[in-house]
Specification:
globular, alpha+beta, Cathepsin B, Chain A, 33% helix
C-alpha cells in the first residue's frame, strides 16, 4: 500500500463524527443554532459529508505537509470533526468591535454551512503550518510557478461540475464550488487529492492525475465570482498583493490555537 494514501482523507468517512460534533454544538450554543439551525435541520450524515470539502482538504494538507497522519477522518485521536469542536468556541455572532467585515461576528461558517477561509487559516496554527487565502489567480498552476522551491498544497475552489464529471449521477447546487487539494504539477498534469471519492469499505483514498488545462477550465464559476483558494506550506511565503484575500484573526484566537500546538 502506498503510504501516502494513508494521509488522504475522505469527506464521507469524516461525516459521522463531524455530524455528532455539530449536533452537540447546536444543542448548547443558541447563537450558532440561530445562524445555522435551518441548514443543519435538513442534514443527515451523508448530506453533511457532501459539504465537508474545505475542512477535509485542510486536514489532508496538514497530513501531507507533516508527512504523517496527524488528523484522521473516521478514526484517530484527532479527526476532521475536531476542526468544528476546536473552532466553534471562537465563533461569535454579535457586535465584536473588530474591523469590518468581522464587526458583526468572527464566524467559522455562514448560514449555508460554508466554512470561512479565516477559520481554516487560524486552525493551521495548531500544526505550525502557514496558510494564505488567495483570489483572482489566473490558473491553478500559478501557485506552483510562484513558489517553485516551496513544498505547498494548494486547496483550490473548482466549479461543482468537476465532481459531476468525475461521478456521473451526482447532482449539485447550480453555481456551487468544490475544494480539492493540488499536491504537485509535473509534465502538464496535476496530482490531486479529491476528498469526494466514492470508495468501498477497506479501500483507501487515492491520488488522481488531471491535465492542467482541464482543471483550469473548472475555475470558471457560474456565479461569476473570482477564483479563490488557500495555499498551505511549512515555508513563510510572500503572496503578491494582487492575489491576496485579506483576512483577520484576533490575537486571542491566534494565541489560544497556537497554545494547542501539536508539533
Amino acid at each position: 500500500m502506498d503510504i501516502k494514501s494513508e494521509l488522504i482523507l475522505n469527506q464521507f468517512r469524516a461525516a459521522p463524527y463531524a455530524y455528532e460534533v455539530l449536533r452537540n454544538e447546536f444543542r448548547t450554543r443558541a447563537d450558532v443554532f440561530s445562524l445555522m439551525g435551518e441548514w443543519f435541520a435538513d442534514k443527515d450524515v451523508y448530506s453533511l459529508g457532501r459539504d465537508l470539502c474545505l475542512p477535509v482538504a485542510a486536514c489532508t494538507a496538514v497530513n501531507w505537509l507533516r508527512g504523517e497522519k496527524m488528523i484522521g477522518d473516521e478514526s484517530g485521536a484527532f479527526r476532521v470533526g475536531d476542526f468544528f469542536r476546536t473552532m466553534l468556541p471562537f465563533h461569535t455572532t454579535g457586535p465584536t468591535g473588530l474591523p469590518a467585515p468581522y464587526d458583526q461576528g468572527w464566524r467559522v461558517f455562514d448560514a449555508a454551512g460554508n466554512v470561512y477561509h479565516h477559520a481554516v487559516i487560524a486552525f493551521m496554527k495548531i500544526f505550525g503550518i502557514h496558510a494564505y487565502s488567495v483570489r483572482n489567480f489566473p490558473s491553478v498552476q500559478w501557485a506552483f510557478r510562484q513558489f517553485p522551491d516551496a513544498l505547498i498544497v494548494f486547496a483550490v475552489s473548482l466549479s461543482n461540475s468537476f465532481v459531476s464529471a468525475e461521478y456521473p449521477g451526482h447532482t449539485f447546487e447550480d453555481g456551487g464550488r468544490h475544494v480539492v487539494d493540488i499536491m504537485a504539477v509535473e509534465g502538464g498534469r496535476f496530482t490531486i487529492a479529491e476528498s469526494y471519492q466514492e470508495i468501498q469499505e477497506g479501500q483507501r483514498p487515492y491520488l488522481i492525475n488531471k491535465d492542467i488545462g482541464a482543471v483550469d477550465g473548472y475555475l470558471v464559476y457560474k456565479d461569476g465570482r473570482p477564483s479563490q483558494g488557500i495555499i498551505f506550506s511549512l515555508d513563510n511565503l510572500i503572496i503578491p498583493q494582487e492575489y491576496q484575500k485579506d483576512i483577520y484573526i484576533p490575537e486571542t484566537v491566534s494565541g489560544a490555537l497556537g497554545a494547542m500546538g501539536k508539533v
